[in-house]
Design brief:
Shape: globular
Radius of gyration: 16 Å
Number of helices: 8
Order of helices and strands: HEHEEHEEHEHEHHEH
Distance between the termini: 27 Å
Low-confidence stretches: none
CATH topology: Rossmann fold
CATH architecture: 3-Layer(aba) Sandwich
Mean pLDDT: 88
Helix content: 40-55%
Strand content: 15-25%
CATH class: Alpha Beta
């Protein structure tokens, strides 16, 4: 087991958090970034929700039963976790701590409340908020065809509240019109800026 207390006090890696409201395109962005030449480390989130048609266990997420997830919480094995619209999401600690100890650049995708929790534990982490017009979020959620009308309304209401937290993030990128090339470029520029200049 990695000495977590030592890493929290002194680590050489970089922790970048991509976050934003539902429908903003976080999963798609990370998939596109993985195609780039940048050697980032991507921790895999654990979730209790059912996989979507395009998702594969162990690649996009680790899909587990709630009982297994609750064991991880009790054993303090999660970097952060949250209940998102009835489904549990969490990031395992051990892979992140090992990557930090090796000095890697870690790119992690979590919801807004998870991002702020990680920032409180890792003040040097860099939070990147991905945003988009409210109308576009609604369109994307409808096209996804994975939530009921009631859940879509809940997610859109939450999105309004989450946008009020933008000031707590280090950077904001507008993913307007789903311009993946532009947004991916901006994320890579931020990571290069921080790592090359040692901004913390």
């Amino acid at each position: 087991m990695t000495n977590q207390n030592t890493i929290l006090k002194n680590y050489h890696g970089f922790l970048f958090i991509i976050s934003g409201p539902s429908g903003v395109g976080k999963d798609t962005l990370v998939s596109e970034i993985k195609k780039s030449k940048y050697p980032y480390y991507y921790p895999i989130t654990i979730t209790t929700r059912k996989p979507r048609n395009v998702e594969t266990h162990g690649i996009h997420y680790y899909f587990v039963h709630k009982t297994e997830f609750q064991k991880l919480i009790l054993q303090n094995q999660l970097l952060e976790w949250a209940n998102v619209y009835g489904d549990l999401y969490g990031v395992p600690k051990e892979p992140v701590y090992k990557a930090l100890a090796k000095g890697e650049r870690i790119l992690l995708k979590v919801d807004v409340q998870g991002a702020l929790k990680i920032k409180s534990d890792f003040p040097k982490s860099i939070l990147i908020f991905i945003t988009a017009p409210h109308s576009e979020l609604k369109t994307r959620l409808i096209k996804r065809m994975t939530e009921s009308d009631e859940k879509i309304s809940q997610r859109l209401e939450t999105a309004k509240k989450e946008k009020e937290l933008i000031k707590k993030f280090d950077y904001t990128i507008d993913n307007k019109d789903g311009d993946l090339k532009y947004t991916v470029s901006k994320i890579n520029q931020i990571i290069d800026l921080v790592t090359n200049n040692k901004i913390t």
